[in-house]
Amino acid sequence: MDRSRAVPSHGAENWEYQLSGEPYRCTERVLNILRHFPYAAKAQYQSWQTGAGSRLEILAEASAQLRSLTEAGVVVKIPKLVDGHIASGPTVGAAATFAAFLKQRDRSYLALEMEAAGVLQAVNEVGGTCQTAVLRGISDLADERKKELDKLKGGILRTYAMENVLSLLWSAMAVDVFPRGRP
């Protein structure tokens, strides 16, 4: 939302919001390494997926709501590594219309979150040879159901999403996916 502006409009509202600013980008080399992880370390990747599925089964046993969300396909049984653009900024997304608005900027956004932009901005300001990648565990759909999903059994979906992404990171590090000490 950097350098965005509100301008007069003739629509139902008397103004519209125009997005601007430069998107932050992760290091392409690191992203390529992650893109190949499911193939280059297939056993480790499948082990990560199996572990996540087991965690979900345990959590679903304790929560009928979580079980029904899994059956409805809102929560997936087996996570996967998905590569794509993430909208990141200072606004919490809790409305489908806001997600649609953001897609005016980039129709390929896969997720909305608030932390990565700050990290990537700091790396960008420092410059140098710092390499970056953003791994996100998705715990809600950034729409009107956000509050309801966040309340589910004390934030169980956030916990599950965080455990999954950390487990993915540890799995990738265990097979030395990331270059160490090399710019």
Secondary structure blueprint with pairings:
Elements: E1 5-8, E2 15-18, H1 28-40, H2 42-62, H3 64-71, E3 85-88, H4 96-102, E4 109-113, H5 116-126, H6 146-151, H7 156-174
Q: Can you tag this structure with a few keywords?
A:
flat, 7 helices, mainly alpha, two-stranded antiparallel sheet
Which geometry do the CA atoms define? flat
Beta fraction: 5-15%
Number of strands: 4
Structural class, judged by helices and strands? mainly alpha
Largest sheet at a glance?
2 strands, antiparallel
Low-confidence stretches: none
Tell me the helix content: 40-55%
Number of domains: 1
Helix-strand topology string: EEHHHEHEHHH
Q: What's the overall average pLDDT, rounded?
A: 86
Describe the model.
It is a single chain. With 183 residues, the chain is mainly alpha-helical. The protein has one domain (22-174). The chain contains 7 helices and 4 strands. Strands 1-2 form a two-stranded antiparallel sheet. It has a two-stranded parallel ribbon with strand order 3-4. Helix 1 (28-40) packs across helix 2 and helix 2 packs antiparallel against helix 7 (156-174). It is flat, with a radius of gyration of 19 Å.
